[in-house]
Write a structure and sequence with these properties.
The chain has about 80 residues and is an all-beta fold. The protein has a domain of about 30 residues. Helices cover about 0% and strands about 25% of the residues. It is built from no helices and 3 strands. The chain has a 3-stranded antiparallel beta sheet, with no helix packed on it. A hairpin with a 5-residue loop joins β1 and β2. The two termini are about 65 Å apart. This is Pupal cuticle protein. It comes from Daphnia magna. Keywords: Cuticle. One of its GO terms (molecular function) is structural constituent of chitin-based larval cuticle.
């Protein structure tokens, strides 16, 4: 529930044609209307859908984990390095 604003204006084109614009602004946004405004084409066909391939991706085998690097001299954890 919110405010609704409406309005209209007109002007004369260089060719002498009166152009009228009416509009409404509410919770659905700004909605202009006029015979001079373009209209999106209506598609009467179904858009193609990409095929779905069902297959399993290869999974790398799990390798054993071992700590390496400075401060790790044993394969067992002593609880604290300091």
């Amino acid at each position: 529930m919110g405010n609704t604003n409406r309005g209209s204006s007109y002007w004369v084109s260089p060719e002498g044609q009166k152009i009228t614009l009416t509009w409404t602004a509410d919770e659905n946004g700004f909605q202009p209307k006029g015979d001079h405004l373009p209209v999106a084409p209506v598609h009467e066909y179904e858009l193609p859908v990409a095929p779905v391939h069902e297959y399993e991706l290869p999974v790398a085998p799990a390798l054993p984990y071992s700590r390496t690097g400075p401060g790790y001299t044993s394969t067992t954890y002593s609880g604290s390095r300091y």
